[in-house]
Amino acid sequence: MTTANPTNPILWTDHASTSKRRNWLARSAAAIAITFILVALLAPLLAWHQPIVCKYQGQFYFPAISDTASRLPLVGSWFQKAKPFRFPSFDARTALEPDAFALWPPVPYGPMEMVADANRPASRRHWLGTDDRGRDVLARLIHGTCVSVRVGVYSMLLAGIVGIIIGGAAGFYGGAIDWMCSRLIEIMMCFPAFFLILVVMVWIGNGVTGIILVIGLTQWTSIARLVRAEFLSGRELDFVDAARSYGASGWYIALRHLLPAALAPTLVALTFGVADAILLEAGLSWLGLGVGADVATWGGMLRDAYDQIRTHPGLMTAPCTAIFVSVLCCHILGEQLRRSLDPRIGFSESRS
Amino acid sequence: MNERSTHSMFEVTDLSVRYARGEAPVLRDVSLTIDRGESIALVGDSGCGKSTLALAAMRLLPKTAFIRGSIVLRGDNRETPVDILGSDERTIERVRGRRIAMVFQNPIGSLNPVMRIEKQLAEVLRVVRGTSRSTAKRGALESLNRVGIADPVRVGRAYPHELSGGMAQRVALALALAGEPELLIADEPTSALDGIVQAQIVELIRETQRQTNLSLLLITHDMAIAKALTNRVCVIEATRLVDDCPIDQLTAADRHAATARLIQAAEFKRSAAITLMERTI
């Protein structure tokens, strides 16, 4: 039951040192991932064209906070409707008197705001400089995180749901349903996904929702195959027959006995899938088929920087680093999850 | 036998099973009946089709199998008979666990490896008895107690791999008996266990039968276990039912050759055990 044997110093230290090293990797990856998510959720508190707190005509307003709240997933629409605190209807940059009280976010610029001359190098006012239209690069980077995280998480949620339903049905029922689902999976896999997504994006136009739908509805095939395999092998286990013999229904067995076993590999595949989705979104935005020019995205920033790669090559670094770090993060997390969730990777292999 | 079958609670008539079209049948025209409270043993070599009969009786055979004949569960005279092979899935789900239950050969394999024992028991109680979530846990510990587990709290919190084979078979029995079935099908319940534990499980089944008027269909290849638990033995040899006799007439001269061989095998095993014991002591 215990994994390490403290009475055997060699075995124990060996295992401890490698697991410590891996822990360090996994923990930093998790920390970075959580940072990305927090940045995405709280973007207007970090970079916005409105102050966090300000006094306007004798009253206090919280423009950045209310904008953050109304953009939150699930509860955002409630904030927009219920308006628990005053939502400002003024532009703080022009409306506020110079001596009025205002607390600005650390980066006091919006992602689309043209605030300075074009292509300024990094300075105290613009920590990462400005781009070809005089927009603050750091502000754009922060708001690009929102798009990447949203696309990554939501498209994989969608892919997971579709994959579990189709793969689960195929593996659980077998027979004709399995045949149909498997052929559907194969047909989907035969299409070169990126070109399919390109065509669909040209057809439905720009927009985050469109990207999420398109990526989610094309990337579910690997999940479906995993879930199908788990259900197929799980169905043959003795305890599934036993559960039937106690009177359990098919649904109960699928949800209670088969699905939990399939969730672990699904979670791993979804974590890798988030990286793919971020890359796909960046690629689409780079081609101008992504979220649209009115929203800051990493891919869009890369596109803008690419136009002047000869004169200002430094502009590429920020979005490139963001994409690289987020994708690497997902891969490390996925690998770590795979190792910790896969019971077949035992003590000996995890040491290698 | 015909006269008896009119009162029987469980009736298999001319059952033939083949797993795929064109394959040789695993069972050929098998008929047998079980009365209320009666225990019968189905004895035969490995691969003769006895487990298939058990699975057919629970309708757990794969959907692709070809099945002919009929299996009818009559139960009391008050209840309407259930046609096991012909009814829809929902009816069968209500029969499984509540009226016919089954114990499998591999006790640890028949438990979900990632669920605690008490959780599995509680969920089965909720399914078959409709026990509420809050009382199901107490019911789980009670049913563990009933199958002779002295420390139900500790065992309830364990995972299947932490149990010994005998303990796991007791748990499996508790799961099977949770719905207070009329008929228990035990498919080689002791084959995976060592001698002493075998005796304990046999004693436990016998005790349960005494208390609840449970009918038993015991599937085994061991004539000794059959003798200990049942009062009638049906012998299957190569897909056919060849012999059906009360336990006290087993040694009669005109028994089928297969019966005689199985008795011989049991006697050989016993004498081998005795020899071994004499040598080691």
Helix amount of chain A: 55-70%
Strand content of chain A: under 5%
The percentage of residues in β strands of chain B lies in: 15-25%
CATH architecture designation of the largest domain in chain A: Orthogonal Bundle
Largest sheet of chain B: 6 strands, mixed
CATH architecture of the largest domain in chain B: 3-Layer(aba) Sandwich
Given the helix and strand composition of chain A, which structural class is it?
mainly alpha
What do we call the CATH homologous superfamily of the largest domain in chain B?
Answer: P-loop containing nucleotide triphosphate hydrolases
Question: How many β strands of chain A by DSSP?
Answer: 3
Biggest interface reads: A-B, 21 and 32 residues
CATH topology of the largest domain in chain B: Rossmann fold
Strand order of the largest sheet of chain A: 2-1-3
Distance between the termini of chain B: 48 Å
Could you explain the architecture of this structure?
The complex is a heterodimer of chains A (352) and B (281). Chain A is 66% helix and 3% strand. In chain A, α12 runs antiparallel to α14 (317-341). Chain A has 352 residues and is an all-alpha fold. Chain A is built from 15 helices and 3 strands. Chain B folds into 2 domains: 2-99 and 188-280, P-loop containing nucleotide triphosphate hydrolases (Rossmann fold, 3-Layer(aba) Sandwich); 108-180, no CATH class. Chain B has helices at 2-5, 50-57, 89-95, 117-129, 133-146, 152-157, 165-177, 195-212, 223-229, 257-280; strands at 10-18, 27-34, 39-44, 66-73, 82-83, 100-103, 183-187, 215-220, 232-237, 240-246. In chain B, β7, α8 and β8 (215-220) form a beta-alpha-beta unit. The longest helix of chain B is centred in the C-terminal third of the chain and has 24 residues, at 257-280. Chain A binds chain B through residues 1, 174-175, 237-239, 241-250, 252, 256-257, 260-261, and chain B through 55, 58, 60, 63-64, 89, 93-98, 101-102, 104, 106, 109-114, 123-124, 127-128, 162, 172, 175-176, 178-179.
